[in-house]
Design brief:
Number of helices: 3
CATH topology: Mannose-Binding Protein A, Chain A
Number of domains: 1
Radius of gyration: 20 Å
Order of helices and strands: HEEEEHHEEEEE
Strand order of the largest sheet: 1-2-3-4-9
Structural class: alpha+beta
Number of strands: 9
Distance between the termini: 49 Å
Shape: elongated
CATH architecture: Roll
Helix content: 25-40%
Length: 155
């Protein structure tokens, strides 16, 4: 009888632990085609790209941004990278406006409207701006109000 109670308590404890794990890592919100997870990631179901739920949070130059993405470990994934300008453009949606007047889903938090992209053209690199959905080219050494948002492809 005592052994049965112990097994029952262990089973209940395991269910509670598994529920907590699922609640942490599982889906936390939806916004149209975007799904946020408790791992700090956001899946774009249209493009099958997974984004970090927030940018790096402070001014960063292009080389450091590239390194930040390479070493990012959100959701315990190891294949994060700097996005291409076209991928950032796919996040832009003129019909959406977040609380900072940027045109994108509220599930991704940006601390600045301008994000680095991996594209390179001669000595300049790409930037995408979420206020008006514009593409720019600039020196990779700049960092003022520039952020990076890691991305990975979902297989």
């Amino acid at each position: 009888m005592k052994n049965t109670k112990v097994r029952y308590l262990l089973a209940v404890l395991m269910v509670l632990i598994l529920s907590a794990v699922v609640a942490f890592a599982g889906e936390t919100a939806r916004d149209g085609r975007f799904i946020a997870y408790g791992t700090g990631t956001v899946l774009d179901t249209k493009t099958n790209l997974m984004w970090a739920a927030q940018d790096n949070g402070s001014d960063i130059n292009w080389e450091d941004a590239k390194s930040y993405c390479k070493h990012y470990r959100g959701g315990d994934y190891t294949d994060w990278r700097m996005p291409k300008q076209d991928e950032l453009a796919m996040l832009y949606d003129e019909t959406l406006t977040d609380n900072k007047y940027m045109h994108k889903t509220n599930l991704i938090e940006l601390t600045s409207a301008a994000l680095w992209a991996s594209d390179v053209f001669t000595s300049e690199v790409a930037v995408f701006a979420f206020f008006i959905g514009s593409r720019h080219w600039t020196s990779p050494s700049g960092s003022l109000n520039l952020r990076v948002l890691p991305v990975r492809s979902v297989k």
